[in-house]
């Protein structure tokens, strides 16, 4: 794809959460495609999420490897293997994982030195790494999860505090200083912006580290960002590159089928079922790796999907000890199997393959950025059901700016491990949103048209000469130039 530069060495450090690991590893793989020498640092359980992809890339001759280091389980009183933040992580163990991460900091820094990194690329949740890079006199690139739009919106809320002027939790307010008129309610604002808490300080540290960094990386592309590409650079005062859609770029051909799985066979149930459905007749329903709904939510989702009149493929987590609701789900699964209306997929789904299937016509999503980008690449409109993090902001982008989304009606931001027992959305709201998205009305047709247009732009972005392709080339050249400058200074 480009001239190989095996002398340029990049070391990547993903955060210990599946939703952050996957995109940053895909970015690492993209740099290796360009011939850059790449090392990814991870602990064994986290490396297992992506190692098969790295092995395939390495077998193709790409200069990429994983360096694993042991997680300090005994030091933080954790059982072996609990080292990742996701829906299955026991709530009382998340603090211990954070402690374990802090204990690994010295080892991370030593590995940056050992691999003689010319640049480190770290997740936003490692703000300390910007100081490490400064000590080493090398650039640090920060991977920022989510959209430029979402982070620009959060910045505007923090700066102007429009939510402080409303009289009730449900009054809408306009967020100043943005290219578009965006309205929110107090309940939709992340708690770290409503009140000062531990995460408020973490986000401040992340922002400060981004401003000190060589630049920021987003899983995005220029047409998707629109006016927010330059707006974000202006408010942050830093260089910023969109290098997406990274999942489509890094996972082509057999990689799609084998991503995170040994094999995806033709006779698997979900594929056989989808193959019986007509084009764009199925809605795909998934709430990501960080969500585990209480029983009341599952009941409303099931009834809402069943009464929508549309075919659906619904991904649910595998049963864990103490889970409620799996008897209900098993009965529901049996019923929809008999009617051939729906398919319930338990566990980690091969999402890239599913979204690309011609039978899929739309997506119900929590607005996590990985699923948003994968749906955009597949040209699919979305029912938006945000829950936490920057997901309410992503909903505004999909519904109000890009106009490829239908809001299901979720009204309140909650922490990822603190979803309410009472269902936040009713079955009737789900039924209506699915019917609107999958219907034949003019608005539904226009959403589909816009989604397909964006898909074409996403594909162009990663082709030779596309915006994301050019961004990666530019980053490589800037790091190379920085390295040359250091050599010249030494010789002077």
Rg, rounded, reads 22 Å
Helix percentage? 40-55%
Task: Find the CATH topology of the largest domain.
Answer: Rossmann fold
Strand content: 5-15%
The CATH architecture assignment of the largest domain turns out to be: 3-Layer(aba) Sandwich
Shape call:
globular
Number of strands: 15
Give the CATH class of the largest domain: Alpha Beta
Low-confidence stretches: 1-6
CATH superfamily of the largest domain: Glycogen Phosphorylase B
Average pLDDT taken over every residue: 93
Largest sheet: 7 strands, parallel
Number of domain modules? 2
Number of helices: 22
Side-by-side strand order of the widest sheet: 3-2-1-4-5-8-9
The secondary structure category is: alpha/beta
> Ends: how far apart?
35 Å
What is this structure's SSE topology?
Layout: E1 9-13, H1 18-33, E2 37-42, H2 44-47, H3 51-59, E3 64-68, H4 94-103, H5 105-114, E4 119-123, H6 129-136, E5 140-143, H7 148-160, E6 172-174, E7 183-185, H8 191-194, H9 198-212, E8 215-218, H10 222-225, H11 228-236, E9 240-242, H12 246-250, H13 254-258, H14 269-275, E10 282-286, H15 295-307, E11 311-316, H16 326-339, E12 342-346, H17 351-356, E13 360-365, H18 369-378, E14 382-384, H19 391-401, E15 405-407, H20 427-438, H21 442-461, H22 467-491
Helix pairs in contact: 7-11, 7-19, 15-16, 15-20
């Amino acid at each position: 794809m480009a001239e190989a530069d095996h002398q340029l060495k990049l070391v990547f450090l993903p955060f210990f959460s599946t939703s952050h690991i996957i995109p940053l590893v895909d970015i690492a793989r993209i740099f290796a495609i360009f011939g850059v020498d790449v090392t990814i640092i991870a602990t064994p359980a986290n490396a297992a999420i992506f190692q098969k992809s790295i092995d395939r890339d390495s077998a193709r001759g790409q200069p990429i490897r994983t360096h694993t280091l042991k997680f300090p389980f005994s030091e933080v009183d954790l059982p072996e293997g609990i080292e990742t933040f996701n829906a299955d992580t026991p709530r009382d163990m998340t603090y211990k994982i954070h402690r374990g991460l802090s204990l690994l900091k010295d080892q991370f820094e030593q590995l940056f030195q050992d691999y003689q990194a010319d640049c480190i690329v770290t997740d936003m949740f490692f703000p300390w790494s910007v100081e490490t890079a400064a000590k080493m006199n090398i650039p640090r690139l920060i991977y920022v999860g989510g959209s430029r739009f979402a982070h620009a919106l959060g910045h505007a809320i923090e700066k102007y505090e429009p939510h402080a002027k409303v009289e009730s939790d449900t009054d809408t307010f306009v967020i100043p200083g943005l290219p578009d008129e965006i309205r929110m309610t107090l309940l939709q604002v992340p708690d770290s912006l409503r009140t000062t808490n531990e995460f408020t300080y973490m986000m401040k540290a992340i922002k400060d580290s981004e401003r000190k960094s060589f630049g920021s990386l987003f899983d995005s592309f220029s047409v998707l960002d629109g006016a927010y590409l330059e707006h974000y650079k202006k408010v942050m005062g830093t260089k910023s590159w969109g290098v997406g859609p990274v999942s489509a770029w890094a996972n082509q051909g057999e990689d799609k089928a084998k991503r995170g799985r040994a094999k995806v066979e033709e006779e698997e149930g979900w594929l056989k079922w989808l193959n019986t459905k007509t084009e764009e007749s199925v809605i795909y329903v998934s709430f990501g790796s960080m969500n585990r709904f209480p029983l009341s939510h599952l009941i409303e989702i099931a009834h809402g999907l069943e009464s929508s009149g549309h075919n659906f493929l619904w991904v649910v987590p595998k049963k864990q000890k103490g889970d409620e609701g799996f008897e209900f789900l098993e009965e529901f699964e049996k019923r929809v199997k008999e009617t051939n209306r729906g398919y319930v997929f338990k566990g980690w789904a091969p999402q890239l393959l599913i979204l690309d299937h011609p039978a899929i016509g739309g997506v119900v999503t929590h607005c996590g950025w990985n699923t948003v980008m994968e749906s955009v690449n597949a040209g699919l409109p979305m029912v938006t059901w945000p829950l936490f993090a920057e997901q309410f902001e992503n909903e505004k982008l999909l519904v109000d700016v890009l106009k490829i989304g239908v809001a299901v009606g979720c009204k309140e931001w909650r922490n990822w491990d603190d979803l309410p027992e009472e269902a936040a959305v009713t079955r009737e709201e789900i039924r209506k949103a699915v019917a609107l998205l999958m219907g034949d009305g003019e608005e539904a047709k226009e959403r589909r048209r816009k989604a397909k247009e964006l898909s074409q732009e996403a594909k162009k972005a990663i082709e030779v000469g596309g915006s994301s392709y050019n961004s990666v080339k530019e980053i490589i050249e800037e790091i190379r130039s920085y390295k040359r400058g250091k050599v010249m200074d030494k010789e002077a």
